Amino acid sequence: MMIEQSTRLFRFLTNGPAFLDISRDVVAWVRDCDAREVLLTLHVKHTSCSLTIQENADPDVQRDLLTALDGFAPRDARYRHNSEGPDDMPAHIRAMLTATSLSIPVIGGEVQLGTWQGIYLIEHRDAPHTREIAAHLSFER
Amino acid sequence: MMIEQSTRLFRFLTNGPAFLDISRDVVAWVRDCDAREVLLTLHVKHTSCSLTIQENADPDVQRDLLTALDGFAPRDARYRHNSEGPDDMPAHIRAMLTATSLSIPVIGGEVQLGTWQGIYLIEHRDAPHTREIAAHLSFER
Amino acid sequence: MMIEQSTRLFRFLTNGPAFLDISRDVVAWVRDCDAREVLLTLHVKHTSCSLTIQENADPDVQRDLLTALDGFAPRDARYRHNSEGPDDMPAHIRAMLTATSLSIPVIGGEVQLGTWQGIYLIEHRDAPHTREIAAHLSFER
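ok -> structure tokens follow
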């Protein structure tokens, strides 16, 4: 038995504040690696977008989550840091409240997402962005 | 020296909104594995409960944390997603604000929890649930 | 090829509510380990300070984030747990909303922080504290 480590950079295009489901790409990569008992880790390389694992059934859940994030960090509050536009500081706050990195065990070759769980990249900025996610996998052969 | 990986599914019964201390079960599993220099990772397979590491001394801390979570995601706010009851959308928001996965180094066989740290499963729904947590451990022999 | 695991305890002195940039110490340790394809994990061993990855360019961002955290958990709210001073329960809430552990892939020897990302220890208490962070690295030789 040998343990190997795989790493990969994912790139995703975003188009304004929204939840982007990246589960399919991530799960496909784990399958391609033929990994069985493994730890999968994702880390988003930005501070104005973030990661979360959330319900993948009713799209209204994502709308309500965006509304909640908007309430936690309103665009019209007074921020010291406002040189990058009114959507920037709220984006940092929303990123701080959600996740920058996620780790999910893989058991018997299956990424251990629950039935109703999806992995989401949450874009917090208004303008389109290319977002990078660094992924890591350690596995036995 | 060889590195092995262990995975396990934990199941916990919950009974309404509360902090359930799962530290004892998790630490016991790490001890059973006889792991020394290790990374321990936990991932909860649901989106209406979550994980946190919090103070384990004064139970009032947990009550105050529940009150705070209630304030962040009130049950009586207007949500689009309300088909699963008034406790469901607040549960998703509370899960988003806390953690879905946690990783804790093990050094010299000791899970590196601080003296006042406990690992908690936070139930956000009203009804009793069986909750699954996927655990991963990589260790040297 | 062989995989080894390194662990380390970092200690940092804090001096009141602030963001302490610990990126340099962490990255230097990874370099000293001569690690290439790796997973780096940090876990803070306390419940009244926490970790976050945030913008490292404009110090005003950190000031705005502290203001936001203050708004989420005001010092003058009524808490049951108040025996350790008015800054204690807000500290626990702020810790719950941010991160206790972070995992970042290392690819080709480079910790995968984005250009504008720094790793921060956020102190939430008023008094100076010595804070411990347990670190884990698995790497191939």
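The longest helix of chain C spans residues 59-72.
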